[in-house]
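Anyone up for a design puzzle?
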């Protein structure tokens, strides 16, 4: 079954790989590009509240760059009435912008710090505004250090009321879920936070380093679970974990199970936040740097073309002689 613009078979693999190489430069500069060309605009300097960076960026990548068509399965919507940890299925690189968009930019993403070395133009501004919590793989048993760092991040970046967790612990493109890791589910229970499960299908067809492929226009079925309150399981982590597991499996089956399920087009709502002076500086500086990089790339291509012209003329003359 074809997904998006990438057909099945050998031709599809070739097109997918070419598409991946084409979109990677855009992805690496996606944060400043979203500032410049994203909708809704971040540039209303006279307005007290403007769209959050995380919302503008995630919508730009999901809908504008990759052309994803979100389809809501069922009637449940995003929970946003309090601190919440959103548990999502990890399929590919596309998860980061799709899942942030599905939380309306209200949740930050956990990412290994090594990604900052690969995509610095995206990661550094995202880390500065708190949209990405970058961590280094620590030694065994360093859970308290990670938990305290998450507490500090939530207190510092108050525009975010929660974060996205991938409880399977690794990418999984199989039709069935992997067992859920307990670590950050324990954190959620210990902090008395709510949990909502968000399952998105076919995300690996959008942008995947593992598959070596990218495709435009993929349909993404999306399901939101009922909210699970850890306060209803005080002193009973096993009961809480069992309820989370039950809800996870139910939502997974709703999204990946019945193919004739009723769906409707879905566009997450914009989140408005109050901009600080630092955010305005980041907006202007990153956009300016992206513009300079783009102009430099064009001039470099023109210079190469101009340098190649005399060589082409000389080769043509040699053939004619």
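Challenge accepted. My sequence:
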């Amino acid at each position: 079954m074809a997904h998006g613009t990438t057909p099945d078979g050998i031709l599809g693999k070739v097109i997918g790989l070419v598409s991946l190489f084409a979109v990677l430069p855009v992805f690496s500069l996606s944060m400043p590009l979203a500032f410049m060309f994203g909708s809704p605009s971040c540039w209303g300097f006279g307005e007290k509240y403007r769209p959050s960076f995380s919302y503008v960026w995630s919508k730009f990548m999901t809908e504008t760059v990759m052309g994803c068509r979100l389809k809501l399965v069922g009637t449940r919507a995003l929970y946003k009435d309090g601190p919440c940890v959103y548990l999502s299925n990890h399929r590919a690189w596309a998860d980061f912008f799709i899942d942030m968009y599905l939380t309306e930019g209200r949740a930050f993403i956990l990412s290994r710090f090594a990604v900052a070395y690969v995509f610095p133009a995206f990661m550094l501004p995202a880390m500065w505004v708190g949209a990405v919590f970058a961590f280094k793989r620590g030694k065994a048993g360093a859970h308290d250090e990670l938990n305290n760092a998450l507490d500090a991040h939530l207190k510092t970046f108050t525009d975010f009321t929660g974060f996205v967790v991938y409880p399977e612990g690794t990418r999984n493109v199989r039709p069935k879920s992997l067992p859920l890791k307990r670590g950050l589910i324990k954190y959620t229970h210990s902090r008395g936070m709510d949990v909502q499960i968000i399952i998105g299908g076919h995300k690996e067809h959008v942008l995947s380093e593992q598959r070596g492929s990218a495709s435009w226009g993929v349909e993404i079925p999306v399901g939101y679970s009922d909210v699970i309150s850890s306060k209803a399981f005080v002193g009973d982590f096993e009961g809480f974990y069992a309820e989370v597991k039950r809800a996870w499996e139910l939502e997974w089956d709703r999204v990946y199970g019945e193919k004739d399920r009723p769906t409707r087009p879905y566009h997450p709502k914009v989140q408005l936040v109050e901009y600080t002076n630092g955010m305005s500086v980041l907006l202007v500086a990153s956009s300016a740097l992206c513009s300079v990089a783009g102009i430099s790339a064009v001039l470099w291509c023109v210079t190469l073309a101009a340098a190649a012209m005399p060589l082409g003329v000389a080769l043509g003359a040699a053939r004619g002689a």
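A detail worth pointing out: The two ends are 56 Å apart (CA to CA).
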